[in-house]
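@channel sequence for tomorrow's demo:
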Amino acid sequence: MATADAPAKARRVSSRARNDAVLLGAVDVARDAARDVASSPDDVGEHLGTTTEADRLMSHHFAATMRGYHGWHWTVTLARVPRGRVATVCEVELLPGDEAILAPAWVPWSERLRPGDVRPGDTLPFLADDPRLEPGWTPSGDEEQDAVAIDELALARQRVLSPQGRDEAAERWYRGTRGPTAPGAVASASECMTCGFVVPLQGPLGQLFGVCANAWSPDDGKVVSLDHGCGSHSETDVEQRPSEWPDSAPLIDESTVEAVTLPAAEKERPAVEADASAPDEPGAPAKGEADAPADEPAGDPAQ
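structure tokens (generated this afternoon):
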């Protein structure tokens, strides 16, 4: 008999299945077959019930106890020959139930791509019906008219931005890191629309965006909104802060002589110490000669 946790199909047990005692009693045979297929014998849980597939053909269901397989069950199909008393294993499957956790539907890689996923050397697939683009220009057959379209109007492109593509780009740029809500723009003193380094875009996007051409700006070479801003604005300056020095404008007067009063210790210095540093008087013996012995003969100048 099927239990309350059995799959919906397992709850429908026919009277013929009740009378097939051989297949009904082969629970251990079905459990051993499921354990042989499972990675571990513990992956096969309790018996959930049976389902009659055909005459002398029955499936036994067991709970799947593996992590991540909530709602799944093992299905072991058994059969017997007419008048046979032995159940034979036909197949073992791991099937999802009504409450099974399933993997999300497979999505092609071209549809899974997100901004920033394309690396150098990668190529995106061609989309013939891209809603962001629309036909740009179709040759008319008139050489003069086609020359004007190609040379003057620059329409020699198969497709150009559609209104949807233009609106999506404007929304993405304006809400991004180079729009008015960026931290640098909020802290800036002036907006990009008054900066001399901004090159406005052509067409409808030029009403709101431009390209920064300031090498000192963190947005150099990037599209910025005209109400964006940074600290490299061409017309702003550093705020002049007051000096922390007490005298804001010190003056040095070199035209007067400053009188210096010596300390008392220097006034009481003995005069001998002062004479010691004075130069020798004319005729006085040089220092060292007065200390020489008197009987020592003087050197011969000729030698």
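heads up for whoever presents: Residues 1-5, 8-17 have pLDDT under 50 and may be disordered.
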